[in-house]
Amino acid sequence: MRRSRATHVATAVQVVTVSVVAATLALGLAGCGSRLGQNGQSSTSSDGVATADSPSATSAPAVDPLAELDAALTDIDRSMRQSESDVGAGDSAAATADE
Amino acid sequence: MRSAPHARWIATATCATITAIALSCGVASPALAAAPSSSASAIAPSDSSTTPRGLDAIQKAATAQTSARIAALNRAIPAVTRNRFLTEADRATILSTLDEALAGMQELAATIAADTDAAAAATHYQQIFTEYRVYAVVLPQSFYAAAADGLTGTAIPKLVEVHEKLRAAIDADPSASTPEIEASMASLAEHIAEAQSAIDGVAAAALAVTPADYNANSAVLTPLKADVTTAVAAARLARLDAKTVREALR
Q: What is the ipTM for the molecules in this complex?
């Protein structure tokens, strides 16, 4: 009788453990699907079917203002290099001794 | 005390004789050689170049001087042509000046090579310097104007744009507004303003300088060169400010 009660307790513990593991796996998979959706590769729909993301017909892709900023900084660098080179060329000519 | 007419005539004749002897010996000073007459008031500003002695030496030196300038002009023309930061109007002005100087050097080279008289060759030789000022005016003014165009047309407007975008990014995330970032933003604005102030009107002023201006004042390009240098340095500091803020927002 005592042995039978112990078996029941052990079984119950196993059931709880399995449930917890299953719930953890389910949550992990759901989170993984969500992250994939954010990366634009695939997402999990409400019915659990993974679908490929496609650009919405009603919203244009967002432009990253900081990416635009970096492009502007690159333009500045190119322009500055040219201006500095021009100043050097002008100085070099002006420094020619025989004039 | 006024001198007698015959005394003035003797003095004038003596000066003319000395000048004629000097020219015939090929020892004319650059100033004398550049002057069309022996009148002191017509003497051109002193030049650091010296006219060699004798027709043959003048012709050899002229070949070297014109060849060097022709080569420099031929290097500058494609550089100006492909400079994408120049305004089209300034590019046209610069190329016109460079082409004119190139044609002038080629013409002078041919003229001096054909000269048979040392005095005439000496006069033509000095024109390489006094009439064109390829090194002292034409090339520097072209490149300083190009540098100015790069700042006014691209670098400074882009720095203003960057300042606006950084401001918007900071305003969108109040936690990013630290005292250090705000100090860099203020520095960025100051350096942009400094560059704008220094470079304003420099391209047009540089392109307006003529060899005659230089002959009258050999430092005529100096303040313009200083303005370009100041503007470039300020723009470079503004770029560093922008980089500091940009890195903080990552």
A: 0.73
